[in-house]
Amino acid sequence: MAKNTGARTKTTAVKARKSRKPIPKGEGRKVKTGSSQTAMPRSKTGAAAKAKSKTASKPWSAAEVYEAFARFRAANPEPKGELEHLNAYTLLVAVVLSAQATDVGVNKATRHLFPIADTPQKMIALGEEKVREYIKTIGLYRTKAKNVIALSEQLIAQHGGKVPRDRAALEALPGVGRKTANVVLNIAFGEPTIAVDTHLFRVGNRTGLAPGKTPLEVELNLLEVVPDEFMRHAHHWLILHGRYTCVARRPLCEKCIINDLCRWPEKTVFLAAS
Ligand code: SF4
């Protein structure tokens, strides 16, 4: 097992906590804890269940966290997001459009939209009605089209048409919340942020790596336990793990590269990573 050479020191973690911005109203909302969201363990009875629940509650050691991310890195050294974009602005728009929609669905629409509107100015020139036409296959498209135009106007009025590298300024844009700001800061600017969506929320809780009742709790726990050297890509590794391996209904534990580290009492076959 790899040594814990990259784990954050307590001081670093405390500094990170102190530097965090106040939590916006509504961001700490609880996420439904049904099986499709968190896939938390189903109730079990008897001694076996008691033994398993003991295992499930044991926190990960720093060495185990390091080992898990070292394996993610070895398997996929340069993970990429799946939302197609041309620049920071189109990334921002794509993330706004992806709320309660799939990346595949968003990409289908933006493949036609972005070549003709890759700046706030061009998007405004296109107009809300035409934007609506381009994105009408995406859920909540009317509200999203309105937000895309409004955020483009705000970018021009307040930021010279550029996407700001600043959490507060991003979250002040129409349709942009903490998760969207985290994605943009991470992908467009390389900031060590972690956006917690439904996949990260499930993985954080199910594995026991960063348990939390809300996405914000999971995010803050991840920021505290993920070693600095893995922060840049942690978001992508975890989202891809949740999307393709640790899926909601029947996780592919037999293929999982962190199976031996995972605390989920219902994980299936263990295959030692080689
Ligand atoms: S073993 Fe892997 S796939 Fe299975 S629950 Fe744990 S993290 Fe998810």
CATH architectural label of one domain: Orthogonal Bundle
Determine the N-to-C terminus distance: 11 Å
**Total helical elements:** 13
Stretches where pLDDT is under 50 for at least 5 consecutive residues are 1-56
Instruction: Quickly name the level 1 CATH class of one domain.
Output: Mainly Alpha
CATH superfamily of one domain: Hypothetical protein, domain 2
What percentage of the residues does DSSP assign to strands (E)? under 5%
Present as ligands are: iron/sulfur cluster
Helical fraction equals 40-55%
Cα Rg: 20 Å
The gross shape turns out to be elongated
Descriptive keywords:
mainly alpha, 13 helices, binds iron/sulfur cluster, 274 residues, Endonuclease III, domain 1
Structure description:
It is a single chain. The chain is mainly alpha-helical. The protein has a domain at 88-189: Hypothetical protein, domain 2 (Endonuclease III, domain 1, Orthogonal Bundle), CATH 1.10.340. It is 53% helix and 0% strand. It contains 13 helices and no strands. It has helices spanning 10-19, 46-57, 62-75, 88-97, 103-113, 120-126, 128-134, 141-159, 167-171, 178-189, 198-207, 215-225, 228-244. Helix 1 (10-19) runs antiparallel to helix 12 (215-225). The longest helix has 19 residues, at 141-159. The chain is elongated. The termini are close together. Mean pLDDT is 84; it is low at 1-56.
Can you lay out the helices and strands and say which pair or pack?
Layout (H helix, E strand, L loop, with lengths): L9 H10 L26 H12 L4 H14 L12 H10 L5 H11 L6 H7 L1 H7 L6 H19 L7 H5 L6 H12 L8 H10 L7 H11 L2 H17 L30
Helix pairs in contact: 1-12, 4-10, 6-8, 7-8, 11-12, 11-13
Iron/sulfur cluster binds next to helix 11.
